[in-house]
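Tip: read the tokens left to right.
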């Protein structure tokens, strides 16, 4: 089963630290090209993230975006006892020097820098959750790419059948083309009303037959179709192999068209090139 390089996936995870959201988008690319957008506090995970993506995907330009919505909870606020004691001692010194000074209320003390602090997030647990959620997102992305791959496979099989049908029609047409050309040559020679060397006539017929012989091109097209069908069944990344086969398909179709001495065969060659181009466009999206 082939795999597309196009897909999207989203995965979420929540905990005491808040809510994590991964969004993964991938499109076609010659190699694996990973772009990351991470919260400042999680940038240290970049090597592990790239390693996970590389193990899950073969090719494609992949945008990986991680958002962290920190939990807003009052019970996470803590008082720094040491800082509070220092502020209290400072206030006592002020009262001793200035008895008329008013004592600060508790709210004013809490607003003093450093007295009130938020409980520290467990960064190790947060990092583990981010990596675990990434696994879920990558699984979803692979499922999306596999689904797109199934649709691409249907299109490619249909185009391959179209090329195979054109090859069959050309093969069926060739004997008639040869007979028609030979009759045409003999008719023109009869109109000249002059003796013709039979050996020379046979030689011209042989030369024409060699010039228009496309059996090798048709056989190669059939071989490429078989190789392409095998590639469609493999579970390994085959995008590059298919891209190479598209070049070979196009080469044989061009040669077929250039050798053609018959409008019907030329038409088949043109239709083959249209089908091959449609396949080439789809192959660009295959991993």
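Filled-in amino acids:
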């Amino acid at each position: 089963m082939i795999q597309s390089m196009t897909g999207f996936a989203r995965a979420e995870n929540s905990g005491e630290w808040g809510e994590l959201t991964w969004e993964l988008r991938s499109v076609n690319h010659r190699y694996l090209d990973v772009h990351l957008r991470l919260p400042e506090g999680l940038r240290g995970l970049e090597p592990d993230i790239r390693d996970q993506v590389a193990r899950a995907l073969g090719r494609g330009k992949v945008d990986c975006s991680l958002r962290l919505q920190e939990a807003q909870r009052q019970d996470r606020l803590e008082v720094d006892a040491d800082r509070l004691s220092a502020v209290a001692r400072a206030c006592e010194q002020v009262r001793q020097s200035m008895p008329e000074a008013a004592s600060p209320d508790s709210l004013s003390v809490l607003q003093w820098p450093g007295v009130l602090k938020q409980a520290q997030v467990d960064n190790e647990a947060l990092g583990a959750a981010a990596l675990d959620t990434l696994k879920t997102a990558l699984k979803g992305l692979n499922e999306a790419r596999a689904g797109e791959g199934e649709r691409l496979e249907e299109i490619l099989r249909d185009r391959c059948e179209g090329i195979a049908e054109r090859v069959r029609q050309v093969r069926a047409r060739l004997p008639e083309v040869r007979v028609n050309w030979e009759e045409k040559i003999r008719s023109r020679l009869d109109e000249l009303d002059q003796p013709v060397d039979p050996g020379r006539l046979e030689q011209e017929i042989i030369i024409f037959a060699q010039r228009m012989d496309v059996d090798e091109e048709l056989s190669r097209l059939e071989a490429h179709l078989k190789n392409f069908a095998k590639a469609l069944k493999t579970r390994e990344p085959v995008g590059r192999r298919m891209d190479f086969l598209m070049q070979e398909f196009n080469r044989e179709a061009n040669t077929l068209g250039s050798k053609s001495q018959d409008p019907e065969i030329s038409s088949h060659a043109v239709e083959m090139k249209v089908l091959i181009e449609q396949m080439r466009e789809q192959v660009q999206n295959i991993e």
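Residues 84 and 115 are 5 Å apart (CA to CA). Strands lie at 7-15, 18-27, 32-37, 60-70, 77-79, 116-118.
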